[in-house]
Amino acid sequence: MKKFLVYLLICVGISSCRKENSDWLQQMKVPCDENTICKTSIYKAIYNHEPVVYSILSGALCDPYFSVQLHNLNGDVIKSYSGPNDLSAFGKEVTDQILIYTCH
């Protein structure tokens, strides 16, 4: 049931889902428990005037390293950001970010 709700939230959030998309969307979701050091959050956003989805890790040990892959609505990686130099570019190029899932 939880997987269905996450998929439903993502579909509603990005307004365009096909049944075959569920595999790549589910792979972005990481289960959390009390032993999880890094928490996973999934966002929808706009990149280059197109909707995208990305996940990001946060937590005391994860925050120092920045790494994000933007996925189009078919699940294809269309842009990758990695490291402190890309953080500024990410902030300028990726807009309208909305949190659609978090493992908290």
What does this protein look like?
- The protein has helices spanning 2-14, 22-28, 84-93; strands at 39-47, 50-58, 67-71, 77-82, 94-102.
- The strands form 2 sheets. Strands 2-1-5 form a 3-stranded antiparallel sheet. It has a two-stranded antiparallel ribbon with strand order 3-4.
- The model is unreliable at 1-21 (pLDDT under 50).
- The chain is 29% helix and 37% strand.
- It starts with a helix and ends with a strand.
- The protein has 3 helices and 5 strands.
- By secondary structure, it is of the alpha+beta class.
- Strand 1 (39-47) and strand 2 form a beta hairpin.
Indicate the percent of residues in helices.
25-40%
Q: Which whole number gives the mean pLDDT?
A: 74
Instruction: Work out the number of β strands.
Output: 5
Overall morphology: globular
The major sheet is characterized as: 3 strands, antiparallel
Helix and strand succession? HHEEEEHE
Gap from first CA to last CA: 17 Å
What structural category characterises the helix and strand content? alpha+beta
